Amino acid sequence: EFKGIDLKGYRDGFLGPGDKEALLAEFKSIQPNIIFVAMGSPKQEFLMDELIKQYPALYMGLGGSFDVYSGNKKRAPKLFIKLGLEWFYRLLQEPSRWRRQLAYFVFFWRMITKQL
Question: Within 10 A of 47 (CB to CB), how many other CB atoms are there?
C-alpha cells in the first residue's frame, strides 16, 4: 500500500528472557529510524522507555492499531470515536480488559489528586 517504504524487520510482541537484548542488537545492526511498538498499554510504554535509552529512534506506541489495520478487529462506531469513548467500546467488546482499564482510572485519579 505504501510504495517506497523500506521495512527493516518485524516480530511478535511477546518478549521472553533475553529478547530485549536481542532487539537492541538487531536495532543496532539494521538501524531503523522509526520503531512501532504494538503491545498494548502500558507494556509498550515501559518497553519504549527502556529501549530509547539504549537506541535512540522515533518510537510509536500503536496498541491495537495493527489489529484494526489488518482487519482482525473492527474500529469502534463513529459515535464512540467522536465522543472519545473508543476505549469503552473496546471494553464492551472485550470484557476481560476491565482490570487493565481500571488501572488507568486509578492512575489518572492519583495524578489529579496530587496536582490539586
Answer: 19
Q: What secondary structure letter does DSSP report for 35?
A: E
* Dist. CA 94–CA 87, nearest whole Å: 10
27 contacts 9 by C-beta, under 8 angstroms: no
What confidence tens digit (pLDDT) does each residue in 17-61 have?
Answer: 999 999 999 999 999 999 999 987 778 888 999 999 999 999 999
Write out the E strands in the chain: 34-37, 58-61
| Residue 115 binned pLDDT confidence (cut-offs 50, 70, 90) | low
Distance between CA 57 and CA 89 in Å, rounded? 32
Burial 2-16, CB ≥16 within 10 A → b, else e: eeeeeeeeeeeeeee
